[in-house]
Amino acid sequence: MSRFFVQGIHQSGDVVTLGGSDAHKIVSVLRMHDGEAIEVIDSAAQRFSATVTMDGRSVHANLGERLPAAANARHTITVAQGVPKGQKMDFVVEKLTELGAARIVPLESERTVVTDVSANKVERWRRLAKTAAQQCGRDTIPEITQPKRFADLCETFANYDLVLLPWELADRAPLRERLPALLAATKNMLILIGPEGGFSHAEAEAAECAGAQLISLGSRILRTETAALVVLSILNYLSER
Fold first, then answer.
1. Helix, strand, coil percent values for the chain (each to nearest 5)
2. Helix, strand, or coil here: 198?
3. Which domain holds residue 112?
4. Given CB 3.0 to 4.6 Å as the disulfide criterion, which of 25, 180, 223, 238 pairs with 29?
5. Structural domain tally of the chain?
6. By the 8 A CB rule, do 40 and 4 touch?
7. Which tens digits make up the pLDDT trace of 59-118?
């Protein structure tokens, strides 16, 4: 069943308007008709069965019964991603959404090439996150924050139970040995991913001094758009176990 996110907190019996890309998808892509069923999720992550009604160019959802809430994720994961060149960040946002990231922070560090992240880019990433959340069946859309500088982010480490920084020069202790103990009492974690040029020695040392755990992803140096996906896949595997 196709699902759509709406603003505000609602209850059964409400009628909400679906506009923009959602209305276009219902009318022109899915070619729905009055009375067809969809699923609607509000700002409180409440899920409702709903039916579609058309009124000229307007599309409305008539909210029916409230559906059972999905199981909460074991870990709340924030990913601070060094902003790569070109359209690579689009791919990263989509895949991190599918893998369950709760928050994505565009990160500016010493070797970041892209330092002029515009408001339009951030809005684009938010739209991509919404679309990816609808596609993969999530009940929430990950938050895409405004860009942050590496030094400013280090000052927030105390807000997390665990901070992980993959680094090619970190000790190569296998993650299957390190992570279970680190995750045992962790609810809220931050993962820092460097840009194309990676983190500098000074940044890695500063992060470690601020409380981050430096980890190795193996003998191969991964592209920036790959590294976060590998870490989240490993964390999802360990959580399922």
1. 35, 25, 40
2. coil
3. 76-240
4. 25
5. 2
6. yes
7. 999 999 988 876 666 789 999 999 998 889 999 999 999 999 999 999 999 988 877 789
Residues ≥6 apart with Cβ < 8 Å to 42: 5, 6, 7, 8, 9, 10, 48
Q: Please give the model's pTM, rounded to 2 decimal places.
A: 0.81
As given in the structure block, the two tokens for residue 121 are 């880019």
How far, rounded to the nearest angstrom, does the alpha carbon of residue 185 sit from its chain's CA centroid?
22
The verdict on 185 and 103 lying in the same domain is: yes
Q: Is 179 in the same domain as 215?
A: yes
Pairing of strands 188-193, 76-82: parallel
Query: What CATH number is associated with residue 24?
Result: 2.40.240.20
Per residue in 103-160, pLDDT (tens digit) is 999 999 998 887 778 999 999 999 999 999 988 888 889 999 999 999 999 999 999 9
**Distance between CA atoms of residues 11 and 40, nearest Å:** 11
Residues 61 and 84 in one domain: no
Same domain (yes/no): 53, 83: no
Q: Are residues 102 and 190 in the same domain?
A: yes
